[in-house]
Design a protein that fits this description.
By secondary structure, the chain is of the alpha+beta class. It has five helices and 16 strands.
């Protein structure tokens, strides 16, 4: 009898320990699940906060705008970094020249936007020695130094198209003189003993910077530049000139040429270029404008 009681007691004790163990196991399991969910929620919350998940912004076009105003207006959406400042003749100081990423890009909040701006104070460069260089060599040297050409004039000198003098505002500009980057200097070139006219270059359909390079390379000067339908030189192409010269026509060095530009988005320049070599006058009645 006593042995049966003892056996029964053992069974009850074992059953009690078994229930307690199972209860503790489930409690531990539940605690582990709760902890796992809590950790996952915290990690996802931090990740969402870090990446601004779901917040996408379209990068505006900042070109031509004052960079300080841009930073004040868009500083909450983007992080701006001015990576460089360049001097550009005629451009508004402090305005944005270039940006990266480009306009229209989709980026997350806080993305770095790199800006190149127009410097408020142009840097100074050393004036190179152009004397005795050919005109083409002088143009390359000036471009490398960050300088431009204002006017090209002829003078009596035995070396044709060689630089005889370099001046600024009528005064001779000595080599190594410190001048502002972007300054346009005057070049005096030799006539070789007699004036020989240069062939007029094919400038129709060219961009403004290409027109300037072609005219200067042939000892010709840029006169008045007129943008007929758009002020943005990016899309502008040479459409008409005054006085009128056919490509290849002999023109006296130093001649000024007025350029009229039209937008490549409004003119079918493929047709225009096909016909421009045979234009008899600048007042052609042919219509090249595409319907907008």
């Amino acid at each position: 009898m006593s042995e049966c009681l003892i056996q029964d007691a053992k069974l009850k004790i074992n059953s009690l320990f078994c229930r307690m163990f199972k209860k503790k196991f489930f409690l531990h399991l539940l605690a582990a699940l709760v902890l796992t969910v809590a950790i996952a929620w915290i990690v996802l919350s931090m990740l969402a906060s870090y990446t601004r998940h779901g917040e996408v912004f379209i990068v505006p076009d900042f070109s031509g705008k004052d960079y300080e105003l841009v930073i004040n207006q868009y500083g909450e959406q983007f992080s701006f970094i001015v990576s460089d400042s360049l001097f550009k003749q005629g451009a508004t100081q402090g305005s944005v020249l270039q940006q990266e990423p480009p306009p229209g890009s989709k980026v997350k909040r806080g993305r770095n936007i790199y800006l190149i701006t127009v410097s408020r104070q142009p840097e100074k460069v050393r004036m190179p020695n152009l004397v005795n260089l050919s005109l083409r060599e002088a143009l390359v040297t000036l471009e490398s130094a960050g300088l431009e050409v204002n006017e090209i004039r002829l003078t009596e000198h035995f070396a044709r198209n060689a630089i005889v003098a370099q001046t600024y505002h009528g005064k001779e500009l000595e080599p190594e003189t410190m001048i502002y980057r972007g300054v346009a200097v005057d070049l005096l070139i030799g006539d070789g003993g007699s004036v020989i006219n240069n062939p007029f270059p094919m400038i129709y359909g060219k961009k403004p910077n290409e027109v300037k390079h072609l005219l200067h390379s042939n000892a010709l000067n840029i006169g008045k530049e007129t943008y007929l339908d758009v002020a943005d030189s990016t899309a502008s192409r040479a459409y008409k000139i005054e006085p009128y010269f056919k490509p290849g026509e002999a023109v006296r060095p130093g001649t000024y040429v007025n350029i009229f530009y039209k937008s490549a988005e409004r003119i079918n320049f493929n047709e225009f270029l096909r016909d421009s070599l045979y234009l008899e006058s600048a007042d052609s009645t042919t219509i090249y404008e595409e319907e907008i």
